[in-house]
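Notes from the 1:1 (GR / supervisor)

We went over the backlog. Supervisor wanted to see one worked example end to end before approving the batch request, so GR pasted a single chain during the call. The sequence is below; no edits were made to it. Supervisor asked that the structure be written out right there so they could see what the output format looks like.
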Amino acid sequence: MTEKEIVTLVASVLGMVFGVAGLTLGVLNYLRDRPRVAIVVSWDIRIIPSQHPKPTGGPLQKTFVRVEIANLGRRPIFIARVCFKFPRGAPTTWALIPESLGGKKLGEGDPPHAYLVDQVDFSEHASYWKEIRVVAVDSAGKEYGQNLDSKNPPTWVTGLDIWGD
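Structure output shown during the call:
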């Protein structure tokens, strides 16, 4: 083998190695470089103003559900709406959170966006509460869902008052 053939062989092997490495890094970057949406649902939330040590009746006694949407991915995402999705056979299929209609852009590293919803109307769904999902829909129509925590039922399912009122 001549010196020219050895240089050609080494260059072609290096080209193959770097080409495969570049393709692998490109595919891995593509798979990593997308939005990932996390949804956290917290039931039985009360709002207590800082100037009142304990609320005494009125709207402060209401309980809410808090839906928190966060982007854990690297690309920004525009959440167009957030809904509760009920199973087939339920009186309603979707319950839209009205505050989410304007949409919200969530970028990489942005703080989560939270919605508070009065949970008084959820008691009619107590028989199938484990099948309720919270769904965030982006501007392209893709749904990101979160099942409810089946180990900790909310008070509208158990009928217990955790606040002792």
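Supervisor's comment: Residues 3-32 form the longest helix (30 residues).
Batch request approved.
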